[in-house]
């Protein structure tokens, strides 16, 4: 359990009309991005966050995905993720000598030599952040972990009104210790295509051979009826009549009465 005091009286309506905090659940080796995957908590509530771990494995992008061991210049101690890569690419854009020539306060790797940005660089940082799109430089990760959050809330009981409007009680726990694995793979591969084509080709070939023989027999009968004129038929009949097979006489055996 974590108790958070938000100090509502210190909020400025010029910046935002919302009161509360935003919580992001992430892997310890990744950079949190609460503005993308955060859960908003309001004061005066008991907030319960039930977490379920999901492991994503994408088999369709093995040729262009990135492993966890890819190093990042400004975040060498973090695992690779698309969000971390985008932030790192943004920092590298800031550090360009032709841009701002500085970077926010981080601990970059030894091969990065750049100064920390100051107040004088704020205008340059805002300008570069609006115009730079790092998504083209960040291919997806081959596999990564995400956490599905199921929030629930209840009213917070306190003795005073001040404590109720300033206090947030946060409970974070695992809904289950099981890890759900989501595999993304092709449902119809090139091997399936070859197998289906082979089966269809075999069926088509067998049917074609039988049909071809039947067509040949039909053509032969048609040609025979067209070429064999009545005169030819008469000659063939005369030849058949002239051909006689020799007659062979078979003597019957004598009966037993002659003995």
TrEMBL record:
<keyword id="KW-1133">Transmembrane helix</keyword>
<keyword id="KW-0406">Ion transport</keyword>
<keyword id="KW-0472">Membrane</keyword>
<dbReference type="InterPro" id="IPR001873">
    <property type="entry name" value="ENaC"/>
</dbReference>
<keyword id="KW-0812">Transmembrane</keyword>
<comment type="similarity">
    <text>Belongs to the amiloride-sensitive sodium channel (TC 1.A.6) family.</text>
</comment>
<keyword id="KW-0407">Ion channel</keyword>
<protein>
    <submittedName>
        <fullName>Uncharacterized protein</fullName>
    </submittedName>
</protein>
<dbReference type="GO" id="GO:0015280">
    <property type="term" value="F:ligand-gated sodium channel activity"/>
</dbReference>
<keyword id="KW-0915">Sodium</keyword>
<keyword id="KW-0813">Transport</keyword>
<dbReference type="Pfam" id="PF00858">
    <property type="entry name" value="ASC"/>
</dbReference>
<dbReference type="GO" id="GO:0005886">
    <property type="term" value="C:plasma membrane"/>
</dbReference>
<keyword id="KW-0739">Sodium transport</keyword>
<keyword id="KW-0894">Sodium channel</keyword>
């Amino acid at each position: 359990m974590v108790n958070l005091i938000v100090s509502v009286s210190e909020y400025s309506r010029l910046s935002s009309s919302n009161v509360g905090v935003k919580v992001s659940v992430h892997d310890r080796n990744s950079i949190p991005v609460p503005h993308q995957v955060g859960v908003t908590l309001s004061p005066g509530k008991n907030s319960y966050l039930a977490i379920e771990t999901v492991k994503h494995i994408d088999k369709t992008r093995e040729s262009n995905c990135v492993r966890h061991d890819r190093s990042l210049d400004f975040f060498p101690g973090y695992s690779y993720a698309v969000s971390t890569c985008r932030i790192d690419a943004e920092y590298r854009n800031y550090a360009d000598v032709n841009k701002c020539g500085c970077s926010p306060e981080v601990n970059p790797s030894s091969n990065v030599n750049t100064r920390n940005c100051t107040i004088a660089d704020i205008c340059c940082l805002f300008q570069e952040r609006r115009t730079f799109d790092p998504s083209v430089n960040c291919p997806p990760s081959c596999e990564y972990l995400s956490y599905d959050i199921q929030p629930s809330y209840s009213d917070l009981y306190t003795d005073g009104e001040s404590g109720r409007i300033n206090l947030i009680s946060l409970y974070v726990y695992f809904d289950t210790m099981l890890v759900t694995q989501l595999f993304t793979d092709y449902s119809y591969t090139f091997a399936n295509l070859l197998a289906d084509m082979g089966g269809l080709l075999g069926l088509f070939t067998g049917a074609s051979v039988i049909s071809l023989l039947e067509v040949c027999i039909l053509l032969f009968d048609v040609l025979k009826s067209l070429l064999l004129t009545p005169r030819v038929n008469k000659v063939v009949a005369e030849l058949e009549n002239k051909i006689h097979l020799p007659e062979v006489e078979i003597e019957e055996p004598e009966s037993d009465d002659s003995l």
